[in-house]
Amino acid sequence: MSAIDNLPPLREVIAEHGLSARKSLGQNFLLDLNLTAKIARQAGDLSACDVLEIGPGPGGLTRGLLSEGARHVLAIEKDSRCLPALNEIAEAHPGRLTVMEGDALEIDPLAHLTPPIRVAANLPYNVGTELLVRWLTPPDWPPFWQSLTLMFQREVAERIVAKPGSKAYGRLALLAQWRSDARIVLQLPPGAFTPPPKVSSSVVHLTALPEPRYPADPAVLNRVVAAAFNQRRKMLRASLKGVAPDIEDRLRAAGIAPTERAEQIPLEGFCALAREVARR
Ligand code: SAM
């Protein structure tokens, strides 16, 4: 028996259902249920929340979320081989787990969720980054989620929480920190996964702020930040030339020296610049 529920240990589940990990699906499984419960705890109090889990695989994190008291979990998995194992978990927790087969990049899960909603996932890193950017850039704010608790390659996690002046600082940091609090809450060595990946991983927890930290039009801010970091070594007066013909004046009006580089500008500065660029 496992430590946290009455279902069989994950190694048995994997053997019984023939769930050998597939590289093409980015499958590195977490089999230690104490660890998955610990990750689930980082997501906060789940007892009054629906949890959207992407990529449950054999269900280690799913079992953690349920044992930590999630009101309801909606789990979306692309690999049909995992469905029988996930359905066994659903049977053990009547009415608390809904499993959907499909690609999380294509499914809109909102019809199946009741707010408040938290998101938790251990996903392949490329899918995770793409979903994170989508979740951070909805048409309206606040977004559908209260928090995101996501596993990333350590290097990606560091880009999400990076501060100005560091190499990791860029578009992802600004996008994440403009409208949410982002923290690294756990570090995991490769050996925590089966099979072990090449690099260490980190769990990042993001909490949605009710309002942006500084006012700015999202599309303009995105344009300015993308242009500034596309040529991050250049001075802003050069990298932002295409953004507005009088960009040097607008930079000065925002309190930024045109000779500075993107890496040195804090979030507040980019928001001020976005407001100046939006001014007619
Ligand atoms: N959450 C499980 C765990 O922690 O052991 C599995 C983690 S494994 C890194 C990633 C999981 O995401 C795999 O089960 C894989 O099949 C699934 N996956 C990959 N791409 C996906 C996609 N586009 N949509 C939904 N699931 C996906």
TrEMBL record:
GO molecular function, one term: 16S rRNA (adenine(1518)-N(6)/adenine(1519)-N(6))-dimethyltransferase activity
Gene3D superfamilies documented for this protein: Ribosomal RNA adenine dimethylase-like, domain 2 (1.10.8.100), Vaccinia Virus protein VP39 (3.40.50.150)
Pfam families xrefs: RrnaAD
SUPFAM superfamilies documented for this protein: S-adenosyl-L-methionine-dependent methyltransferases
Record bears the keyword Methyltransferase: yes
Domain Ribosomal RNA adenine methylase transferase N-terminal stretches: 35-210
InterPro entries according to UniProt: KsgA/Erm, rRNA_Ade_diMease-like_C, rRNA_Ade_Mease_Trfase_CS, rRNA_Ade_methylase_Trfase_N, rRNA_adenine_dimethylase, SAM-dependent_MTases_sf
Top EC group: transferase
HAMAP family, A to Z: 16SrRNA_methyltr_A
PANTHER family found in the cross-reference section: DIMETHYLADENOSINE TRANSFERASE (PTHR11727), DIMETHYLADENOSINE TRANSFERASE-RELATED (PTHR11727:SF7)
Stated name of the protein: Ribosomal RNA small subunit methyltransferase A
Organism in which the protein naturally occurs: Sulfitobacter aestuarii
Lineage: Bacteria, Pseudomonadati, Pseudomonadota, Alphaproteobacteria, Rhodobacterales
